[in-house]
Amino acid sequence: MPRSERPVKRGVWQEVLDSIRRRWHLVAGGLFSIVLMDVLHLYSPQLIKQAVDELALDNADSASLLHIAGALAGLALLVTVLRMLGRPLFMALGRRVERDLRDSLGMRLLAQSQSFFDGQTAGQIMARATYDLNNLRLAAGYGVQAAWDSILTLALAVLYMLWLSPCLTLLAALPVLSIPWLTRRQSILFHNCHQRVQSSFSDLSEEAHDCMGAIRLVKVHNLARAKRQGFAELSREHKRRNLELAEVSALYLPVMNLVTHLSQGVVWGAGGALAVLGYISPGDIVAFSAYVVMMKTPLVYSGYLINLYQRARSSGSRLQEIYQGPDLAEPCQTSRNGLTPKVSARGLCFSYPGEERPVLCGLDLDLNPGGITALAGLVGSGKSSLLKLLAGLYPAPPKSIFLGGRDLTEIPLPELHGLVGLVNQEPFVFSATVRENLRMAAPQAGPEELWQVLRLVGLADEIRALPQGLETELGEHGHTLSGGQKARLAIARALLPGLPVLLLDDALSAVDPLAESEILQRIIGHRQGKITLIVSHRPSSLGVAREVMLLDQGRLAGRGTHEELLSFSSLYRRLTQRQKLLSKLGEN
After folding, report:
1. Is 572 in contact with 550 (CB distance < 8 Å)?
2. What's the rounded Cα separation, in Å, for the pair 537 and 376?
3. Per-residue model confidence (pLDDT) at position 1
4. For a Cys-Cys bond, which of 260, 361, 399, 567 suits 554, CB 3.0-4.6 Å?
5. What's residue 451's pLDDT?
6. Are 523 and 496 within 8 A, CB to CB?
7. Around Cβ 492, how many Cβ atoms within 10 Å?
8. pTM of the model
9. In this structure, what are the phi and psi dihedrals at residue 348, rounded to the nearest 5 degrees?
10. Cβ(572)–Cβ(558) under 8 Å?
């Protein structure tokens, strides 16, 4: 089955449930504490009933009342201790679930194709990794504890009340019948409000990310005032959305208080009449009143739980967009033994997601090991798109690209990324040392291997000239290096693991033509028996290539050596002449 069509076997809720199952001891300990705590807590009105009845019948004495008071104090102490023991267990459960989800989310993001990131902003992803994960943590920890506590308290209170007087229980329950309608209404309002809050938070995060990422541009062009105004506007919108949510939440509490007070009124009114008629005792009325008071907390708390549930539901649906991506492959050791480093395409047609116009159409090609193969063509001819497909950044159509005789869509992404390396025109340098940047591609590489690849790209002397050499911190996005140095460092990082297929997408455009030609010559000698495919417009670089493939509007318009294409392809001649003219203009 093609990689892009493999079914999703696990979602975010499955991850939450699995994480909770693995911490069954925390759940068991927390539930035991809640059950014992609620049983003891709801038994206390029975002691109060006993004291009131003894006083009403004039059977009370100081010893019996002192005994009841001591029992109530003991129950209160035990309930406090159990609450102190039970709540931290559920808090720990929530934190463990959050940690598991954060690890899983990171792995899921790394497994996503480039098309996923094309449709997501950094702010949206950061909102999922912060706001949404926090909502799931609260639901899995504090929410589970509060829900069990509320359900058990209500159930035990109703049982005690039915045992005291079924008739009075039914009368007291009449006002409570409105709660399901109120709960349903509030649930819809909570859900809609939370969706708007999450959307505004994503916009706010994206604005902050853009401003911090382009801080130099903001300062140079004096854009601070405009950025400040834009951020303030988004902040006001986020505040307004949160106030809407607060208004919906604030309305629920007084309504639930009204319901419980109505029940309390029914207890004292109808209970008093029943006591006068002799159906119940005065102590039963007091106990009933105590149980109604105890029910008030879980009833009122139900609004918070609905709020929490809707937040978790909204966050879960947003996170599910990430979990709907490809399945996480089992960790595997990429084997290159016996692999024939040959890449071929047959009838390759490709359009970017959401677009109808194909960028590659009916493309046939073969890449064999040894030397350098170059791609040339006008802007938009499909050169970079082809490299992205070969690197697995976008899913290729089935039975269209083959690596070592295997359909590219049948190769798991972790294995493919252990066979194919790609360096873009805008290389990324991490905020770490030179050594750490290089060893990200090959963690076991020794110093000699690092200096070898640096010499290949002509960067060894420049790195030695840095204050700490390989241990020099490069700063945010490698701002201490020039554009050409970043490009060569990225190529050295890609050369280090010795991948069978290396793709350079105009990666040396920031290097002068003479240095680029020398670097490519050294790469040819270093990568004997492997495939190296480059995209370039410079005649000096195209002349180094063993074969040049000319693309035009997604189709192969010609192939051969640099000299052969100059002799029979007018398009290729125009490309090279244009590039020579641009080079002269740049020199002047």
Report:
1. yes
2. 6
3. 43
4. 361
5. 92
6. no
7. 27
8. 0.66
9. -70, 120
10. yes
